[in-house]
Amino acid sequence: MLSALTEKQEMVYLTHELSKERLLEIRQTQHFYCPACHEQLVLKIGQVMIPHFAHRKNEHCQVFSEGESALHLQGKYALYRWLQFQHMPVLVEPYLKAIQQRPDLLIQQQDKYIAVEFQCSALTPKRLTKRNKGYQKLGIEPLWIAKAKPSFYEGVQCVQLAPFYQQFILNRQLLTFDVEREQLQMYDHLIHIAGRRYLTTAKRTPIHHQPFPLELVIPFEQEKIAEQWLQERERYLVNRLRFNRRGIQDSFFKLCYEHKIMLQALPNWIGIPSSVQLSVHPVEWQLALTCFIRSGVTQDLSSQLYHHNRTWRIPERAIRTYIDFVQRENPNLSWQDLEISSISEEIYRQYVALKFDN
């Protein structure tokens, strides 16, 4: 915690450059209390973490209950300094009594408020939803910034995103903060591949070069993204074959065997990314769907896919979008590759055009 109440019920913030000697003097002469539970706090002044307030070991505060890491404290302080540098009206850890929550920072921007949450520790989806609903109840817009991943590269690429990061994706964007380098890192135009893998365009910027509201604009490079997608699709097929341990008992290879399909000859229009996030790679369910249609099965395709593989749950919207694409670009289901421009246009339509239309 960087904020506390004094004995006179005045708020005090550890956001100014006070020397450790001065803080040690203050600790000897003043007592501090939690703004939420009003229990006495300890002013900690150590060698590793920046000075901060903390509850005593056996106390249980419902609002300030999370143990704070050095990374979280330093990140919160860096974000505060960044906003202050831009003369933004910003509060540190204000206690919102009506919803019993306290954001890391609360910004007033003209006639609206923005709650900035720098998240470093695990957070369940249920708790995330509860926090967001609390802010929405007060008309406050939440802005979640996750801690930076261990490594970061700029440009079009495939990345692994753990569930911790996936839950902070909003409008196909993920914002993270590298505390050590004081850099904001944006993953934009996120396209789900399967599982934890995403295709994205990433960019970083020093925080003090970035105005608020954020203006991290990353162009959608259609051709590069389509080429990267096809490379990822090829990688998936190679690994699928290499690590297959069930032979034709595997539903994917059984389908290929029954329909005399060679993976090397699989046309590039099978395996188009879907805007619906699914656990299965699109090349698998789209191959099955194509085989059904070529065999004359055109009704209740979602159920047909489920019976083919009972771990799949392919919604009608994803099926309809893919069928529309195929009927438009390859109505005869010709077993040939499409021009890469056709694939890039479809990716753009699903991931960019529809986002702005909505």
From TrEMBL:
Residue ranges occupied by any Competence protein CoiA-like N-terminal domain in the UniProt entry: 16-64
Domain Competence protein CoiA C-terminal intervals: 228-295
Pfam families to which the protein is assigned, alphabetical: CoiA_C, CoiA_N, CoiA_nuc
Domain Competence protein CoiA nuclease-like, chain residue ranges per copy: 68-212
UniProt name for this protein: Competence protein CoiA family protein
Upper classification of the organism: Bacteria, Bacillati, Bacillota, Bacilli, Bacillales
